[in-house]
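Give me the fold.
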Amino acid sequence: MGEAAMTAQIWFEDFIPGTVLTSPPRMVTLSDIDRYAELTGERHPVHMDEDFARAAGFRGRIAHGLFGLALIEGLKAGLGCFEQSVVASLGWDKVRFRAPLEPGDAVHLELTLVEKRPSSKPGRGVALEHGALVKADGTVATSGDHTIILLSRPQNPT
């Protein structure tokens, strides 16, 4: 099995507000931008046309804002600590695209565990996490608050 399968799960009981989890870095590439545009059909010229992007005030083509949000989820998944414990996303709030994501940017996730409360259904809770996609120089590119449903620790974990 992969490395993520060996990572300890963060169950409802283990979700400690104030904890910050940090992912390894990931490089943003032109290929990422092209593949995201192909997948979604979102081909605004600021993402696809070098000259247009420069005329708009950027150094060149930039990644889609929602690609940055998707990277937050992907980097979180790479941590491996929520694979079995998170069963649903209830949505994102306060999403902000704070700085452009450019090809060549190395980004990592800083995931802050914010708060939790028991759910009306036994064996689970509702938790809030704040995700920030951070460039190597410390600039936050994308951020938002994510509400999840988190299971309680199983009685007899396997």
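The domain at 8-151 is CATH 3.10.129.10 (Thiol Ester Dehydrase; Chain A).
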